Structure formats: C-alpha cells, structure tokens
C-alpha cells in the first residue's frame, strides 16, 4: 500500500519571546492509503500541530513530512497550497460552511478553486450531497440546516475533490452524542469504501471507532495501537 503520510524525525517548536515550546519531538510515523487512523491525546499533546503539518498548513522545524510523496519542507508556499488543495479534504469541529451560501455552492467551491467548470462542479457536488442524504437540501444555506446536516455538507465538501486524505479535526465536538455517532458511522462507511481518514480527537470513546490509534503525549507518540479494543 502507498504511504500517503510520512513523518520522519519530525520536530516542531514554537518560539514565543525567548521561550521555546517543543510541540512535536522527533515523531516518526507513516499512514497508508485506505487507513482509518485516530490521532488521540490530551490538550497540549501536539494534535493540532500534527494536523497542521499533515494538512500542509505548516512545515516542520526539522525532519521531513511527506504527503503523497512530496516533502513539504521543500515546497514553496504556492506549491504547499496546491498540494493541500489536491491532497487534503478538511472537516472541522465548527463545520465552517460559508455564510449565505447554499449547501450546493459550499460543496462546489473547492472544485471551482481547482479550475473545474461550473457545470461539472455542480454535477459532482450534487452527486456527493445526494450520496450523503442531502438531495432535498441542495439550496439550503447553513441557517436552515441542523448541526448534523451542516457537518454532512462539510464532509461532502471534503470528499468532492477525491483527496488522498480526509483530515477531520474533532468532527463530533459540536454535535450531540447521537448526531456525533452518525458522523462517526459515516466516516466508517467512507473508510470501507477505501478513503483514507485521519480523525483528530481528545475523546477516547470517539477514538475507539478507528482501527488504528496513535496516542500523543507531550509531543511524543506514546502508543500506536492497531485492532479494535
Ligand atoms: N502557535 C503556537 N505558539 C506557541 N506555542 C504553541 C503554538 N501552538 C501550539 N503551541 C504549544 O505546543 C504544544 C502543543 O500544542 P497543540 O499542538 O495545540 O496541542 P493539542 O492540539 O493536542 O492541544 C502546547 O504546549 C502548546 O501550548
Ligand atoms: Mg488542538
């Protein structure tokens, strides 16, 4: 299987004033295409730092991060942005749908950004929203959608470009437990279809849904666990 994410001796430190914080300390790990992995850890353990590195939003201080084979340290800002647009689909805790914009337009946006024609974008976005059970909601903006529906629109938006990796940051954090469980079921289905899913969470119960769990503590990998508990 192809490795879609490779971190090799990755260190990320932040300098605030004259104070250095080591957010990730010599992390080496690989994730293969088609895996469903949870990155788990308490607050301050380095989850967001790792997500930003995998999501091509940031580069390591030292070591290498390779996403779909490209070492992010060697890319210009524009190349990093292009890699992000092609390789990563983001799902956020607060959904982050555009305001006063229909579900359909939200899902079309990343396709239009990639230079795909309006006609094709509309067709693909409609198909994806229909697949996620939102065929009746295409023209609704976020004010007319429940939290669970908004997160499904956000997942459709993440999937529509067929990214190598779906990166979901606390995707159930703003949902009640029943709706959150439905979102996790959806991620499991997408994994069963062959998508690569990386789920970032501080919640051990949520993490238990993933067949592989990478536990972070103080910027280090404490445990890399496979198989269902
Ligand atoms: N932009 C930043 N500037 C300074 N320190 C940061 C920054 N981002 C994170 N940190 C520090 O790095 C460590 C890891 O943070 P983070 O990756 O946000 O962990 P988590 O997402 O697991 O809560 C923490 O000690 C945090 O205070
Ligand atoms: Mg965080």
Task: Walk me through this protein's architecture.
Helix 3 (103-113) packs across helix 4 (118-131), helix 3 runs parallel beside helix 5 and helix 5 (147-159) packs parallel to helix 6. It is globular and about 50 Å long. The model has no long low-confidence stretch (mean pLDDT 95). By secondary structure, it is of the alpha/beta class. A six-stranded mixed beta sheet has the order 6-7-8-3-9-10, with helices on both faces. Strands 2-1-4-5 form a four-stranded antiparallel beta sheet. The two termini are 24 Å apart. The protein contains seven helices and ten strands. Helix 6 (177-192) links the parallel strand 7 (165-169) and strand 8 (197-201). It is 34% helix and 30% strand. The protein has a single domain (3-226), classed as 3-Layer(aba) Sandwich (Rossmann fold), CATH 3.40.50.300. Bound molecules: adenosine-5'-diphosphate (ADP) and magnesium ion (MG). Residues 47-48 line the site of magnesium ion.
């Amino acid at each position: 299987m192809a490795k879609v994410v490779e971190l090799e001796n990755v260190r990320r430190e932040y300098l605030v004033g004259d104070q250095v914080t080591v957010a990730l300390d010599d992390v080496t790990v690989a994730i293969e295409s088609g895996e469903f992995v949870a990155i788990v850890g308490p607050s301050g353990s380095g989850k967001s730092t790792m997500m930003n590195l995998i999501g091509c939003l940031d580069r390591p201080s030292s070591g290498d991060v390779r996403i779909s084979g490209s070492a992010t340290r060697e890319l210009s800002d524009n190349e990093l942005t292009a890699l992000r647009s092609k390789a990563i689909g983001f799902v956020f805790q607060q959904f982050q749908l555009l305001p006063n914009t229909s579900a359909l337009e939200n899902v079309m946006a990343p396709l239009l950004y990639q230079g795909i024609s309006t006609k094709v974008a509309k067709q693909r976005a409609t198909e994806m929203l229909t697949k996620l059970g939102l065929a009746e909601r295409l023209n609704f903006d976020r004010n007319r959608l429940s939290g669970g529906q908004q997160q499904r629109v956000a997942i459709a938006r993440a999937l529509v470009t067929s990214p190598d990796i779906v990166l979901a940051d606390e995707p159930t954090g703003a949902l009640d437990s029943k709706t959150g469980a439905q979102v996790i079921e959806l991620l499991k289905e997408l994994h069963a279809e062959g998508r690569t899913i990386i789920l970032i969470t501080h919640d051990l119960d949520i993490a238990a849904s993933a067949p592989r769990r990478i536990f972070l503590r103080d910027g280090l990998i404490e445990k890399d666990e496979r198989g269902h508990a």
